[in-house]
Known about the structure:
The chain contains 12 helices and 2 strands. By secondary structure, the chain is an all-alpha fold. Strands 1-2 form a two-stranded antiparallel sheet.
Amino acid sequence: MKFLALPMSLISPVTYSLWRKLDSNQLPGLNFKKNRNLLLQKYGFMNKFQSEAYQNFINSHIRLNNYVKISTGAVLNLHNEYKDPIELSVKLNSIIFNAGERWTQTILKNSHTELQSVTNDLAKSGIIWAYSSFDVYFKKVEGYLSGHFVSEKSRTEDDEDDKSHKIVELYEKLKWDQTKIIDLLPILKFYEALRHSVAHNMGHPSGKLLRIYEGKEFKKAIDQWQTKFPNRQISPPPVVTNKIIALRPHHPIMYSETCLRIASDINLKLIVVLGRKHFIQQTIKKHLLDAPILSIPHCQNLSRYIVFHLNNDYKINLKKFDDFYEVLDDIPKDLKEQTIKNYKRRYNTLKQIG
């Protein structure tokens, strides 16, 4: 039997542990094929799990999409509706003056050219947005996993010239399979280098950006990009020369989508490393032990309350309400019983407060 025949990123912690034992014959009395459905029925897959950091990144990705599409659509609508440069300039002056800000009248001599420049600037700001959002996500993930590897000094942007990318380093430290991200990394590195050129070099391409753009790995990664719809090709990447970076509005969205696909793979692996007990404990801490009042809804009893907010916060669904008590399985029975009583007492006290 080959353990790696199934995608480890989708396996729950308990199932993962059992399959490891099965694979190494530590449970010789249990036939894997015969009991596979039983194991899955009992422990299930954790593919719906979402960490707080991942949910925040998804929200950022959606807002970036809306920002780019609405802003670009509005600008290009003005550009195309007013063919006469003078009429367009008058319209823009009116829009700026009536925006509700303390802006004086603004006369744009080359109004059509100015709007084309604005679409490019919108794309630049979107690139910086995507970089920052993914950076925040990754640092949160490192925080979650800090107890599972030795932390190194914080990386700077200059360190990203090193051969090993921080994503690769994380995967190697935790011995994670890189199959799902390997074709995304050249695209990620390209957009990171592009961001640095935009943020620190006034939009002029750096030598590193040019090397990545002209490299075989980047071209191969673009060709192998999996589109969301069959028989459709990815939109062309930015054009980079030694003088310019030609950005289109869809480029920051593609950058963010690249980050999202990597974040998705990390998210599914996170639950395997930390286990669902970790997130049950976090839910108890947030919504019961550290809470001055109960979160809404209060629910009928403690078990329903914790299970609801566990699912609401992390998309972890327990089949039985009392399954959340598994976080106390490793302590003595008398201490476990006393802890449960304390939990219920605090829940009832907070419920009375309202």
